[in-house]
Write a structure and sequence with these properties.
Blueprint (H helix, E strand, L loop, with lengths): L9 H4 L21 E4 L9 E4 L11 H13 L1 H4 L3 E3 L10 E6 L1 H13 L6 E5 L16 E5 L8 H11 L5 E7 L6 H10 E5 L6 H6 L2 E8 L1 H5 L1
Parallel strand pairs: 3-4, 3-6, 4-5, 6-7
Antiparallel strand pairs: 1-2, 7-9, 8-9
């Protein structure tokens, strides 16, 4: 899922510009685009090929995405097979279809990475801005919703939550992972708990490792009482 990132202009986001530190967005100085081969601790064969774009915040590998992909590959192989997934590494799980979303500057990179990784399941890339209508043909209520490293810009939290409310239905499971960089980041989790059932993932054997790195991984579902209204 995309977000309102530091590369967004005021006209795009409707938000005032803010100061971004390198702790939040690493410097892109002296970095060149490259293709990385990733096997997620030997879980993928053949490995995933990823072209990055160090000039774009969304064009780089982030720790939450790595943790989320490794967890799903290790523990959710059966659950995700044959499902409609809104999330590249996951084509190895044999879902029925995968939809990747981000902001316009990242769309061409998504399409390039899809082309680098042949898949039996159809994979398509689409523009999705938080708080806006879900674009066709992205399913408004996918079976699985994956969100990694989406918590980094506090003014965008209401927009992210609104999009999640649009997409998480009775049968949708959302896996949500991010690295906590600021105290305010956990305020999104508090907001989400008011609307959804939010459970900490406990069945990852690597949890002690990534927890020490400030990474959080949740399973999110629609609240039962919310389904009745």
């Amino acid at each position: 899922m995309p977000g309102v990132g530091p590369n967004m202009s005021a006209s795009q986001s409707g938000l005032l510009a803010i100061s971004i530190t390198e702790d939040l967005v690493p410097s892109t100085a002296s970095k060149c685009p490259s293709v990385t081969s990733i096997d997620f601790d030997g879980l993928l064969n053949p490995p995933l090929l990823l072209q990055d774009d160090p000039t774009e915040c969304g064009g780089q590998l982030w720790p939450g995405g790595m943790v989320l992909a490794t967890y799903l590959l290790r523990t959710k192989m059966t659950e995700l097979q044959g499902r409609a997934i809104l999330a590249l590494s996951l084509h190895h799980l044999q879902p029925s279809c995968i939809y990747l979303t981000d902001l316009p500057p990242i769309l061409s990179l998504l399409k390039h990475n899809i082309a680098l990784n042949p898949s039996r399941a159809p994979i398509t890339a689409h523009v999705l801005e938080w708080g806006s209508c879900i674009p066709t043909p992205v399913p408004s209520c996918p079976d699985i919703l994956l969100a990694a490293d989406c918590v980094y810009f506090e003014p965008a939290f209401p927009l992210l939550l609104r999009t999640m409310q649009q997409m998480i239905s009775t049968d949708t499971v959302c896996y949500f992972c991010f690295k906590k960089r600021r105290r305010a980041d956990m305020s999104f989790v508090k907001m989400a708990r008011k609307v959804f059932e939010v459970a900490d993932v406990e069945d990852d054997p690597d949890k002690k490792v990534w927890s020490r790195q400030g990474i959080h991984l949740f399973e999110i579902r629609r609240k039962k009482q919310a389904l009745k209204t």
